[in-house]
Amino acid sequence: MDVTYRMAAGMGGLRTSGDLVARTQLDKKMQIDEGKKYVAEKLGIDVTDLSDEIAMRKAREENGIGLPIATPGKPKGFAAKKNIKELFDFDIRSIEALT
Fold it and tell me: How far is CA 58 from each of CA 16, 62, 87, rounded to the nearest angstrom?
């Protein structure tokens, strides 16, 4: 977990795509490059945009997968997690427990 956490933090975490790429490594057992391609494909953006805070903010808003600062009218918390689960087909136990 320590290595995955460091990679997620290094990619900007929630500000960019670090949290999503880290989850591909944990949940889908992907290598980092494969995880980046998977996330970019699902978001409909280029892999180079994964580390761009502005491009990722737009992608996160459009897909309802959470922003670093809660914004009125945008999904946050469990709603954002639910959208992440549906978009990326991740196993998120807290969401599965509610359904």
Answer: 10, 6, 16
